[in-house]
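Record type: monomer structure entry
Structure origin: computed from sequence
Chain ID: A
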Amino acid sequence: MVHKIEPAAEPPVTLTSPYDLLTGYLDFYRNAVLRKLEGMSDAELRASRMPTGWSPLGLFKHLACVELRWLQWGFEGEHIEEPWADVKTRPGPWHVGPEESFEDIKKFFQEQCTRSRAIVAAAHLEDRAATLGGTVPPDEDRPTLIWILFHLLQEYARHAGHLDIARELADGAVGE
């Protein structure tokens, strides 16, 4: 028997505000990722069924770090000790330490999402990233907030699809 993961409602089809549409879909996909991971055993969260070796828990930590990197480190220009905590060697697979639990990473993820929402609420879509983590030379274009939010949205949509496959392979659960 196939277990079905119930989807959350998408933002209203009548939205016309780019801000509301982007932030609404970001929250939709943030919640989708959480729904896809809930109920998986620790073994399945840490197991990889893909040739690249990524695990659902590693992907989840990656998404938390993506929030941190793009909005706190890049857009706000905050000093972050380990902006690449999900990758120990670059390029390399996503990293989760044996001491890191699903609940630890979930708390970290939720903290990053809360911080991201506050940053976005205090800015304008046309505002440009402060430093992009120091990776953009001062004379080069820095991405706008709307570009960053759209980038995050596509990252979430792509990885939610990856989690669909991982979850179905793990325990047969399917969902939107």
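Annotation 1: The chain has a mean pLDDT of 90.
Annotation 2: Residues 145-171 form the longest helix (27 residues).
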